[in-house]
Structure to design on (211 residues):
């Protein structure tokens, strides 16, 4: 995906993909990750999601990666905290208590810069990437997180009816990207009320990727 596409989205506030509430699929299924207080959860392509607010409220540490600096500035503003900003190689690191967000290309984020994580919550990353990038992304994510367990949310709909993003990701593709490294289990499937654009039937599936 062209980075300028996402920069334009944030610059013009065309962010219909930003959810106005904590994702209920996270709330209902996070226990499957077996997290303890203080565990560190990685959210790739996180935007300014309210899921970060919720995870922090559950006594977890959070680390995110996001292309848009605008999104990250808004995230910290909405959290009411002033970040410390430092260069981290080709990207920037915004930090506050229990929260780090790396700003820039997620493929420029190394395992050493990211640091140890206990789990990954991928709500909006894999589904935002076109087919030719998803295999590379999945391999990179496993490499930088040392194959930490994941909670992965995917959309399922007729791709012929909408170009995406978000893209449709069915069970066979999830297994193709992650099946060799993880045991892949669908925890929940939910119908999206009204579908996409009020006319395209769609479901969300929550997958647990466990070692």
């Amino acid at each position: 995906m062209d980075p300028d596409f996402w920069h334009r989205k944030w610059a013009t506030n065309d962010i219909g993909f930003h959810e106005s509430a904590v994702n209920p699929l996270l709330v209902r299924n996070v226990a499957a990750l077996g997290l303890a207080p203080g565990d560190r959860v990685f959210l790739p392509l996180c935007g300014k999601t309210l899921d970060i607010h919720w995870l922090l409220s559950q006594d977890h540490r959070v680390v995110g990666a996001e292309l848009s600096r605008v999104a990250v500035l808004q995230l910290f503003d909405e959290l009411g905290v002033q970040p410390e900003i430092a260069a981290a190689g080709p990207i920037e690191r915004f930090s506050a208590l229990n929260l780090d967000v790396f700003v820039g290309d997620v493929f420029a984020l190394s395992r050493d810069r990211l640091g140890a994580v206990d789990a990954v919550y991928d709500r909006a990353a894999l589904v935002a990437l076109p087919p030719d990038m998803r295999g590379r992304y999945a391999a990179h994510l496993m490499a930088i997180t040392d194959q930490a367990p994941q909670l992965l949310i995917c959309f399922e709909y007729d791709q012929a009816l909408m170009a995406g993003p978000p893209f449709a990701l069915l069970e066979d593709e999830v297994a193709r990207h992650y099946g060799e490294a993880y045991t892949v289990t669908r925890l929940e499937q939910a119908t999206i009320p009204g579908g996409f654009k009020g006319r395209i039937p769609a479901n969300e599936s929550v997958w647990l990727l466990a070692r």
The helical segments are 3-11, 24-29, 50-57, 69-79, 111-114, 131-144, 171-178. The CA atoms of residues 1 and 150 lie 23 Å apart. The two ends are 29 Å apart (CA to CA). The chain has one domain: 37-210.
